[in-house]
Design goal:
The complex is a heterodimer of chains A (295) and B (197). Chain A is 75% helix and 0% strand. Chain A is mostly helical and 295 residues long. Chain B is of the alpha+beta class and 197 residues long. Chain B has one domain. In chain B, strands 1-2-3-7-6-5-4 form a seven-stranded antiparallel β-sheet. Classes of the chains: A mainly alpha (295), B alpha+beta (197). The interface between A and B is large, with 70 and 68 residues.
């Protein structure tokens, strides 16, 4: 990606369906969410100063860092993009299947699309896996021990709470029901590598996932999901998240929804970019924190 | 629906997925190389070497490491979940312009030049190479507290890193320099491979 991270931050939409969906979900999360899209504002917050010369220096350093491939900031964004594309494709298929189910000639499309629960579970685990991979690209392996790494991961997730809430609601609770987190392991156990291959993002990520072959990759994803589930379970309990509450929160910003929850999830998957949108914001913050320390 | 039509529809959908998911992907990001300022990674001290030089947290506070890269390590100082400050050590090899500001510095901490950057950031240059910085976050920290934090870093060991560290980045085991010996096995982590552990 030739654009720098901060340029991509400034090109994020200020008001569209993605932003509305996130605004809706953020009402469930204490602290809320303000859709940060200004790089200068972000830099000002991090360095606690309005000095234009300092801001210019931080920005120049941030651009230099995000231009360096080995530093991983651009790679994290390309991971998010890949997952986003995969989400659009599968969401579009599911949405199409829903819409065409009522039309006689096109009814068969719905019978071609794969059973959505398993596919959705694999999709969620792929997103969680991408999140872990992107974390290591952006932050390296902070600290000297595994405990340090776990603390850093929990800290990062806490910082991106709206992002995590969106991931849990849009890809877990809405399509899979309130028991999504408990069901996930069983669904993944039932999923073969065939399901994995059906996801477009997988082809893109396969080379990055440790292990050889689809079976090993599936194993990695399940391990990653296991770790994440522990954290996510606490998060869901703490905020009292549920599919019903998510629908209410979304109705507050998007408008009334008459259909089923999984249809809403398919609609959001097909037409919003919440994962990549909040991903750019999270990466930009970490990048600015580093650039501010290095100038 | 006739069988051929079914096939055409199925293939069409699969084709769409392929085009959408695979053909438009940017691969350039994943090529190797592309270091900061085109300076070889071996010349930069690995962030792992910095980790144990961070100050120990005071009562009720905690230090959570947030980023670790070649030539950089950063941690957050927190009290009861509230973010107080960012603590960082960086190797200025990739950012030589960062050293310039210390030339006009009047103050010192433990013999190393000190510079204020705006109302919330204090920086120290150790051994003319490593920049140690404390940036107050949220409600902020007063300068005295920031200076105390800077002084609490293990500055003597940081200064001692310099002579061998640049050459040693990848070479195992280290020829000399006891403080680094235990760190060396971690010297070149493979980020993408670790999360499964």
């Amino acid at each position: 990606m030739s654009r720098t991270v901060l340029e991509r931050l400034e090109r994020l939409p200020r008001r569209d369906l993605t932003v509305l969906a996130l605004k809706g979900i953020s009402t469930l999360v204490p602290g809320g969410w303000s859709n940060p899209t200004s790089a200068d504002q972000l830099i000002r917050e991090v360095i606690g100063s309005n000095d234009p010369e300092l801001i210019r220096q931080v920005r120049a350093r941030a651009d230099q860092l995000s231009g360096a491939r080995a530093e991983g900031y651009g790679r994290a964004l390309s991971l998010y993009d890949a997952v986003n594309r995969s989400q659009h494709a599968t969401g579009g298929l599911r949405f199409l299947a829903n819409v065409t189910a009522g039309l006689p000639l096109l009814k068969r499309i719905s019978s071609i699309t794969p059973p959505s629960d398993t596919l959705q579970a694999v999709d969620l685990s792929l997103k969680v896996g991408a999140e872990l991979l992107a974390f290591t690209q952006v932050n390296g392996l902070p600290g000297d021990s595994f405990g340090d790494f776990g603390a850093a991961l929990a800290d990062y997730a806490g910082e991106a709470r709206v992002r995590m809430a969106a991931l849990i609601c849009f890809d877990g609770l809405l399509p899979l029901g309130d028991q999504a987190l408990q069901r996930l392991d069983g669904l993944l156990g039932a999923a073969g590598s065939g399901e994995l291959r059906k996801l477009p993002a997988y082809g893109r990520m396969a080379a990055l996932i440790p292990g050889r072959g689809d079976e090993a990759h599936m194993g990695f994803l399940r391990k990653g999901v296991d770790q994440w589930l522990g954290w996510a379970g606490g998060f869901v309990g703490q905020l009292g998240l549920s599919g019903q509450r998510a629908v209410h929160a979304l109705e507050g910003s998007i408008g009334p929804w008459q259909g089923r929850m999984d249809q809403l999830a398919a609609f959001l998957d097909a037409f919003t970019d919440t994962y990549a949108h909040t991903g750019v914001q999270a990466v930009a913050r970490r990048l600015v924190e580093r650039a501010a320390a290095e100038i | 629906m006739p069988r051929p039509l079914r096939w055409v529809l199925g293939l069409g959908l699969a084709g769409l997925l392929l085009v959408g998911g695979l053909l438009l992907l940017p691969f350039s990001d994943w090529l190797p190389g592309g270091t900061v300022g085109d300076i070889s990674k071996q010349e930069v001290v690995n962030g792992t070497a910095f980790n144990r030089l961070f100050p120990a947290p005071g009562a009720g506070e905690e230090v959570v490491f947030s980023q670790e890269k070649r030539g950089f390590s950063e941690a957050k100082l927190k009290r009861g979940g509230e973010l107080l400050a960012l603590l960082a050590i960086s190797d200025t090899t990739t950012a030589p312009e960062a050293r310039a500001k210390f030339q006009s510095s009047g103050q010192q901490i433990k013999g190393w030049p000190l510079v204020e950057q705006g109302p919330q950031a204090s920086a120290l240059l150790v051994a003319d190479r490593f920049q140690v910085k404390v940036i107050g976050q949220g409600s902020g920290l007063d300068p005295d507290r920031r200076h105390a934090l800077l002084g609490a870093f293990d500055l003597p060991r940081l200064a001692a890193l310099e002579p061998s560290a640049g050459a040693m980045g990848k070479q195992l085991p280290p020829a000399s320099g006891e403080p680094l010996q235990q760190l060396a096995p971690n010297a070149e982590p493979q980020p993408a491979l670790q999360p499964a552990a």
